[in-house]
Amino acid sequence: MELRVVSGEVSVVDTTVIAGVLADLEPLPGSEVVGDVDEALVASSGFEGKEGQVLSVPHPDAETLILVGLGEAPGFKELRAASGTAARKVKTGRAVTLLAASGIDGATRAVVEGSVLGAYQYRTYKTDGEPLDLSELELVDGDADALAEAEALATATNLARDWVNTPARDKSPSALAESIAAAVSEAGVTTEIWDRSRIEEESLGGVLGVAAGSDRDPVVLKMTYEPANPQAHLALVGKGITFDSGGLSIKPAASMEEMKDDMSGAAVVSAAIAAIATIGLPVKVSCIAPLTDNAIGGDATRPGDVLRPVDGPTIEVLNTDAEGRLILADGLGLVKALEPDLTVDVATLTGAARVALGDKIAAVFASDDEVAESVLQAASVAGETFWQMPLHKEYRKQIDSDIADIKNISGTRYGGAIIAALFLAEYAGDGPWAHLDIAGPARGRETSGEHVKGASGVGVRTLVELARSLGEAG
Ligand code: BES
Ligand code: MN
Ligand code: ZN
């Protein structure tokens, strides 16, 4: 989608105009054109300016006027959602939106994010139907700098969505690595793709153990963004299971259906480093994404096998379906050696996180409350929903192993997200660290506002805001 800021006399011939309506049918500031609309027509449609409502009506000059309801006292989130709803409703190639002229804090960002995210479609495998019409959006009285940043954020989020939505067959670890490397290099990120022999040289026993059952070789993707005067060093690690069958501890069919999503963490950290580089934040970012299938084959890791990750405790694998933590152990070990100021890992790690918080809230665990608070603060700026969970040390003994240093599951299914986080803490080192378990919200269940059914890209914008705050704190 092409986006630009316009002001003064804007020609609306052949376009769709998008205007905001408050409760009681008052126009949103900047959307005064709403006052000219035939009241009887609006009344008969049932449109009352309530949040989420949308109505197309005739406009004297434009092709159509789309009214979006914003309720009583709309803020950033309402404006973003309404922009997404409107973007899907536009039936012309070009549209002019009045919503950025509303005077609401962050209005331009809300309109750009809402429009670009809400109009997202994954059509690679569709041979019928038509893509959405909207291709050019003009923001009356928008802010050009805010537009550019918001576009970088939303485009990166859609990039992550594309990778996650891709069927597992078509994203072998090496193919996915190539696709990610191509996209992030364009943003100025340097990349290294480690093949199996390099992974062996680096002694990444966790990655090799998970990959052992697959005919497709694992890959470790290393990405670095280094601006001129970095104020801080952020390390990111993303879980990149290209398909999670469960391995020999095989999943039941219904639980396997959505397991192409299991590389969401890798997609999110990759999209985030791309956006950070595009925006040019003054923070060095080092990113590791281990990519592998968790498949079943003659030499697959067996329950009871022991793995040696690059650093930290040896692992008795009692359940091959708790595989994300095995590759993250290596990823965390690798970034620990770089001594960053903050490490964040992102993973669709546990069904338990989804049970605890549902499909719309991501879990954050952190080495201390200050780190957790910085993630929650970044999420709040980004307009993503995170909730802090406890890294309850008393549970740690549940993963003591009889024959190795640690085992990859506890004896119960209770507190599974916490157990997984405690496992990761063993590899994260003593520095500031946060673990984002996005197993619930990585996939959107319905299309509404800026949300689209399918991969959500949740976490990308929070990571960028976190990097921004690190850069500012210096
Ligand atoms: N990828 C799954 C977690 C998951 C579940 C993500 C549902 C998204 C939706 C992970 O690898 C897994 O299988 N975890 C197991 C851990 C268990 C064996 C300790 C789980 O959550 O059941
Ligand atoms: Mn699994
Ligand atoms: Zn998994």
How do the helices and strands line up, and which of them pair or pack?
Blueprint: E1 2-6, E2 16-22, H1 39-45, E3 54-57, E4 64-71, H2 76-89, E5 94-97, H3 107-118, E6 136-140, H4 144-165, H5 173-186, E7 190-194, H6 196-201, H7 205-211, E8 219-225, E9 233-238, E10 240-244, H8 253-256, H9 264-279, E11 284-294, E12 305-307, E13 315-317, H10 324-336, E14 342-347, H11 351-357, E15 362-366, H12 369-382, E16 386-388, E17 406-407, H13 416-428, E18 433-437, E19 443-444, E20 454-455, H14 460-473
Parallel strand pairs: 1-6, 2-4, 2-5, 5-6, 9-11, 9-14, 10-11, 13-17, 14-18, 15-16
Antiparallel strand pairs: 3-4, 7-8, 8-11, 12-13, 15-18, 19-20
Helix pairs in contact: 2-3, 3-4, 4-9, 5-9, 7-10, 9-14, 10-13, 12-14
This protein binds ligand BES, manganese (II) ion and zinc ion (ZN).
What does this structure look like?
The longest helix has 22 residues, at 144-165. The model has no long low-confidence stretch (mean pLDDT 98). The chain has 474 residues and is an alpha/beta fold. α4 packs antiparallel against α9, α5 (173-186) packs parallel to α9 (264-279) and α7 packs antiparallel against α10 (324-336). It has two domains: 2-141, Leucine Aminopeptidase, subunit E, domain 1, CATH 3.40.220; 153-473, Zn peptidases (Aminopeptidase). It has helices at 39-45, 76-89, 107-118, 144-165, 173-186, 196-201, 205-211, 253-256, 264-279, 324-336, 351-357, 369-382, 416-428, 460-473, and strands spanning 2-6, 16-22, 54-57, 64-71, 94-97, 136-140, 190-194, 219-225, 233-238, 240-244, 284-294, 305-307, 315-317, 342-347, 362-366, 386-388, 406-407, 433-437, 443-444, 454-455. The protein is elongated and about 75 Å long. The strands form four sheets. Strands 7, 8, 9, 10, 11, 14, 15, 16 and 18 form a nine-stranded mixed β-sheet that branches. The chain has a six-stranded mixed β-sheet with strand order 1-6-5-2-4-3, sandwiched between helices. It has a three-stranded mixed β-sheet with strand order 12-13-17. It has 14 helices and 20 strands. The structure holds ligand BES, manganese (II) ion and zinc ion. The site of ligand BES has 16 residues, from α11.
